[in-house]
Description:
Herpes Virus-1; three-stranded antiparallel sheet; two-stranded antiparallel ribbon; 4 helices; 34% helix; extended; zinc-finger; palmitate
Amino acid sequence: MGNCLKSPTSDDISLLHESQSDRASYGDGNEPDQEPPPPYQEQVPVPVYHPTPSQTRLATQLTEEEQIRIAQRIGLIQHLPKGVYDPGRDGSEKKIRECVICMMDFVYGDPIRLLPCMHIYHLDCIDDWLMRSFTCPSCMEPVDAALLSSYETN
C-alpha cells in the first residue's frame, strides 16, 4: 500500500511562491495589462412587449402611449377569472381536454384562465396570447368588449 501524497519538490515550491507573489502584487500597478474581472452583476432581462400583434419591442423602446395601452391590457387580463383544471371526479364530464394555443392536454391542477366566451386555456399561454391579440383564439370573440360590457352592467 503506497502513500498517494508526494513531498513537494523545489520546483513545486518555487511555482507556489511565484503564484503567491503574483496575487500579492495584483492591483499595485505591477500586474500585467489585465484587469480583475468585474464583480458578478445579475442581468435583469428587459421585458418584451407587443404594441401591435405584428410588432415586438423591448419595454425601454415603447412610447408613453404604448406603455399606457399595455398597462391597461395587463389590468384587463388580471380581471379575467383564473382557476385550476379539474376534469371532474369520474373524468367522464365533457370538458375541453387540450389548450389550443400550446396543443398540450390539460393535466389536473394546471393553472387556467377562463375567457368571457367560456373557453379555457393554460394561464401562461392565454396571458401571452392576450398581450398580442385581445381576441379568443378559438372563437375570435373580442375579449375586451365582453369585459367592458360586464363592467357596464354592474
